Structures are given as structure tokens and as C-alpha cells.
Amino acid sequence: MASSPSGNSNFDSGLEIKTRSVEQTLIPLVSQITTLINHKDKPKKSERTQAAIHRVGQAVSVAVGRFVTVGEAIATENQELKDEMGQACFEARRAGDAIAQLTDVGPALPFQSDGLVTVFSDRTGMVKAARLLLSSVTKVLVLADRIVIKQIITSRNKVLVTLEHLERVSTFQEFVQIFSQFGNEMVEFAHLTGDRQNDLKDEKKKARMAAARAVLEKCTMMLLTASKTCLRHPDCESARINKDAVFHRMRCALEQVIEIVTEARSCGENKILPASIYNGIKDFKVGSEIGLSEGVCEVNQLEALVERTEDFTDSAYTSHEQRQAILSLCQLARQDTQQLVHAWAEAQSVHAKEATEDMEVAILKTCHSVSDLRRELHKVAVIRASDLLKVHGEQLPLRALKAAGAEGKLEAVAEYSRTLTEQKEQLVETCRLLCHVSGNEPLEITCIHAEETFHVIGPQIMSAAQTLALHPSSKIAKENLEVFCEAWESQLCDMALLLREINDVFEGRRGDKRSYLSLPRPGKHSANLKTAKAVKLDTEEQTSMAKLGLELRLLSSDVDTEVEKWEEQEHDIVRQSQSLASMAYNMYLFTRAEGLLKTTLDLFHQAEVCTCLPLFPSSSLFQLVEEEKSVVMTEMEKMVALCQQLQMGAKTPVQGKTATFQKVDSSIQTTRGILTVVLSLLPSCNKLTRKYKSERNSLGFPQDWRERQDASTPVKEEGALHNKNSNGFGVKSLEQHMVGLNLLESK
Predict the structure, then answer these.
(1) Among 570, 486, 6, which residue's Cα sits nearest to residue 219?
(2) C-alpha of 700 from chain center
(3) Which of 185, 384, 419, 741 is surrounded by the fewest CB atoms within 10 Å?
(4) 267: which residues sit within 8 A by CB, 6+ positions away?
């Protein structure tokens, strides 16, 4: 950690900052130190500046002292880090003291005629002290981060021990007791890993963590029913196979989480992930523009790229027209690349120092042809996925398997299992194609996760169906099959969302949800909830609402898609719709133990501010035809009722775990109802705003129709329907809301 003699202001490069929390902690310190270093460049300073520098230096020293005290306490509690942490704390304290001395001007010095005093400027000493302080503080933070990793590992180890006990139980009573303990441990592990996932800076690691946590979430319910089935039918081979597969998958997911947080790699993960065509095209285009200027030929790279397109052309599900289009574009890319190589060779023969006009034209043509190839591959993959989701959305093989199993028809189960196997292979192949056109590495990882999930769950459904067919009167076997079928349906929903995200990336739209600023902070915004106790739901309760949360996510995506059709993206209705969709999305994340809402109390606070009112004044409805007017009025009334229901439900205090769970379920269901109404109203609102805009333009009205409406509508004291300060849904603007938050916090 010692500073290098070179005087480079960058601190120890060996300390890579991997989490946002560490990064954000360092920002204020860097800012203060930068201020001190910059002022050391000016030997003459006014008395006021001198005093300010002294205050900053002393503040840094005091803050470092407090920081070091916490670090030393951590070292005392964690003996394995005691020596390293102690050394880092010692260096931080020494650097803080040095900065305090360098900024201490001592006795007052005589001022010159210009009102400034000349102070000795030891910039070198300040830089050295700053470097030592930053490196030592960073090391303390990184060492403290190891404690978080240790907590995750400890939590995983507890889960593994209980998992082994669950696997060996022989009675229902023992199973129920141990599974209860397992559920509590999984909730703790879910929250620790969820926080870690949100804190990671590396997007690929975040995607891998999300995939592993999704497996654990779905497998927890599978483990429950598969184990119960095996206990009920201990001699059933298919039940044992079903159970063993779940336990194996959970262990793999737990191991993957630990590999991510510790950055370790198992022997089985030495293989490199298959290269996607999208990344291949991106590298090829860069190489065509840069590599050829150095005399490097890109033909081999193109051939490797074309070879990857065989996943599309060799597929039995690719139509003849699609196959021919891909092959033609591959051939065109080859021709353009050959022309580029020829143009480069000619430029070399005349010793051209810069790219010739022929070379520039050839580069443009080559990049254009590979872009056309990418566009065609994207179209093929997306059409395939969309068609499959439509066909498989009816779940015919799953229904048939359930019916055949319940009737004890083993031959029928075998027949429908073959149908499901074919469906599984289609979905696995489609996920592989989507991976090729995903557009970024996190989505590639999500595609691979989807491919693996379909590959694993398919056989598990078949073994569960076989068990039911062997024991058609078994309620547990029937429940077990139902759980695996729901996991399959859930993965199909995830695939639909993945498809939308890939399209968003391809079309250049934002890949993340727009952040919103209306998240309340516990204990500061609702007097009637101050004494409420936050409750964490157990695993079974979280699993039961996972499907509801997924519907909420789909609806929020639908709202985002609908508002993207609006010409005026800054319209109040658009902004409020996006804000509402973002709130709903965070409620969805809550059902997965992720995101900003950590406890049920956070969720209820969110529901309380998730307020929305009719989209436009009812006096404007005369612009709609009678049939549309009736539908809109009905939906608006429904909206008001749902908003009131959500607000009242959020404010109603509850006691006990069951009542809290019911309140959570009610809040999410009501939010889903609000989103459904918003989704139905948005097209009418869009139509109305376009109509008014057209009339305003044709008649030359200078002001907006909403302003005219506000001016002509009397303000009512009660009810926000006609309040001229209301916008969009009738909620105060985000800016006003943030002012309110600041006032509350200042009190």
C-alpha cells in the first residue's frame, strides 16, 4: 500500500473496487482532498480562503479518525483480518494527521498590500498524504467488504447443512420441522445475495447472480413438493429422480453464487461461453476500420462469424426463405470483405500513408453488409421466439400431461412427454438464437440461463407426470406436477420479457427501467405507520406471490410500450405512467427479494404514494364518440375506486404475520388492477391529445388545450379531478414531491 516514488496520484491498482457502496463512500473524500491539493497550487491566499482550507483539513482528519475507530472495531471482531485492517487503519490515521498539519497555518502571518498572505505551499507533501489516505481508506473498505462476503458464505453453508438434512429425512414430521428452518435460512440468504447483486458494479456478474437466485427461488417450492412426494411414495423411482434433480440444481445454484462473490471458478467453469454473433459482428466492424489500416486481413474473422450463423441455417425450424436470405447476406459480406482487402493491397502498393477513397468506400460497404446480416438474424430469431411463445402459450402438452397423469395412463404420459420434449428442444434452440442477437453480455447470460432452465425443467415435468400416473389418487403427486408446470409457464413469461429487452437494445431504447423519485423512506412520511413493524415473508409466501409479481412486471412493460407510442414523450400523462410502471416494477422486484423495497413496511410506504387519478378532465370527453366516452368513464371510475382502495389498504395498520401477508397480497393485486386500467386508458388519452394538437395547429391557437381547459374550469377545494395544479393522474409533480421529502427530513 506504500505510495510509489513516481508521484502518480492514482492509488494502489491492486485494490479493485467492485461494489457501488465502496465507490460511493470514497467520492466525498476524493472531492475534499482534490480541493486541498488544488489550493496548494496557490501560494498566496486570502484570510477567508486560509480559514476554509484549515476547516476542510481538520474535518478530513476528524472524519478519518472516526472512520478508523470503526475499522479497528471490525478488526477486533474478525481476527482473520486483524493484522491487515490494523495496518490499513494505522496508515489512514497517519495520513489524516499529516493532512491536518499541512492545512494548519499556525500563527497569523502578516498580510501584504493586496490583502493576501504568502503561505508555504507543500504540494508534494499534500499529494503524498492524499495518496496514502485514499489507498489506506480504500483498503479498509475493501477489507470490510470481505465481511459481507463472509456473511454470504456463512449463510450458504447453513443452507447447505440444512439441505443435507432435508435430503435424508424419513418422516413427514421431521421434514416439516427442518423445512421450516430451511425456509428461514433461505430468506436470509435471499436478502444478503439480493443486496450484493444490487451493489455489484460488473453487469455480467449481476446477471449471473440474478440467474442463480432465480433458480433458487423456483427450486425452493419444487424442493418442498418433490420431497413430500418422495416421502409419500418412497419406492417410486420417478419420484426419487425428480427429487434428486431439484437438490442437485439447488446445490449448483448455491455454488454459483459463491463463485460470483468470491470470484472463484470451479473446474467445470473453465469453458468459455459460446461467442455470440452480435459481438462477432461488432468486433469485425471495428477490425475492418482499424485493423486494415495496419495491414491486418479480416477474412478469417468473417469466416468464423459466418460459421456461427449455422445455428440459424442448420435449424430444422428455419424456413427456406429465411435460410436463403441469411446465406445471401453471408455471401455479400464475403464479397465486400474481399473488395476491402483488394483496396487495401492497392493502397499498400502505392505506399499510401492514409486510407484511400476506395478503401473508405469498401469499409463502408463491408460494415453495411454485416449490419444487414445482423438485422436479418435478429428478425429470424425474434420471429421464431414470438411464434413459439404464441403456440406454447396455450400449454396444451402440459394440460394433456396433467390429465393423463391424473387418469393413471402411463402410455399417454409417455406420448405427451415426447411432445413436450420436442417443445423443449425448440425453446432451447430459440434461446440459443436469441443469445446470438442479444446485444449485450448481461442479456447473453440471461439467454443461457433460459436455455438451461428449459433443458432441466422439461425432464422434471415428465418424471413428475410419470409419478402421478403411477399414483393417480395422490394429492401430493398432483401438487408436485402442478408446481413444475408453473415453473415452466413462469420461464415462458421470463422469455417474453427477455425478448422485449433484446428488442429494446436492438432498437436503441433504454434497457433499464426509468428511475423514479417518489420512494418514501421508512419512518418519515406517514404518522400512522411510525410504529408499524417490518415483516419479512418466508419462502413459501414469497413463492405464492411470485406469479402475481410476474404479472405486475408484464403489465409495467406493457405500459412502457404503450407510452412509447406517444409523440410527446414529456407529456404529464407519459411521465406519470412511466413513474407508475416503475413503482410497479419495484413491487415485482420485492416479490423476488430484490430491489429497493426490502421489507413489507417499505412496500406499504410505496403503495401509499402509488396514487393515480383520471387521465384527463371529464369535461374533455365530448371529443370522444359516445361508445368511447362510455368506456372511458367506466374505466375512470374504476381507477378512482382502485386508488382509494390502495391508499386505504396501505394506511390500515395490521398485526401478525398472516394479516401482513394478506395486506401485501392485496396491495400488489390492487396495483395490478390500476396498471390494467391505465393500460386501457392510454390509447384513448393518446388519441385525445393528438386530436387537440391537430386542432390547435389548424386553428392557430397559441396555448395548449390543457391550459385552456384549466383556465376555463373552476377550481374545486375537494377532489383533485378538476384541480388546476393536478397533472397526469392528478398526483403532484416529482419536483414538488421531492421538496416535500426534504421538508419532512429537515424536521
Answers:
(1) 486
(2) 46
(3) 419
(4) none
Residue type present at position 387: D
- CA–CA dist 575, 514 (Å, integer): 10
Residue 630 is which amino acid?
S
pLDDT for 634-653, tens place per residue?
A: 787 788 788 878 877 877 77
486/687: higher pLDDT: 486
In angstroms, the CA 436 to CA 277 distance is 5
Report yes or no: 516 and 728 within 8 Å, Cβ to Cβ: no
Report the C-alpha gap between 563 and 101 in whole angstroms: 58
In this prediction, residues 376-392 reach a mean pLDDT of 91
What value, to the nearest 5°, has the Cα angle with vertex 223 and ends 244 and 155? Answer: 100
Residue found under cell 493576501 = 116
Instruction: Tell me phi and psi for residue 431, to 5 degrees.
Output: -60, -35
Phi, psi of 118 (to 5 degrees): -85, 120
Distance CA 559, CA 119 (A): 62
pTM of the model: 0.65
Contacts of 724 (CB under 8 A, 6+ apart): 710, 713, 715
DSSP letter at 731 equals: B
Coil, strand or helix: which one is 656? Answer: coil
Q: Quick check: 427 and 317 in contact, CB under 8 A?
A: no
Per the structure block, which three cell numbers stand in for 631? 368506456
Contact 651, 740 (CB under 8 A): no
Rounded Cα gap, residues 382 and 222, in angstroms: 31
Interval 193-249: pLDDT, tens: 988 888 888 888 999 999 999 999 889 889 999 999 999 999 999 999 999 999 999
The three-state secondary structure class of 528 is helix
Kindly list the distances between the CA atom of residue 18 and the CA atoms of 1, 25, 193, 389, in Å, as whole numbers in the listed order: 18, 13, 15, 38
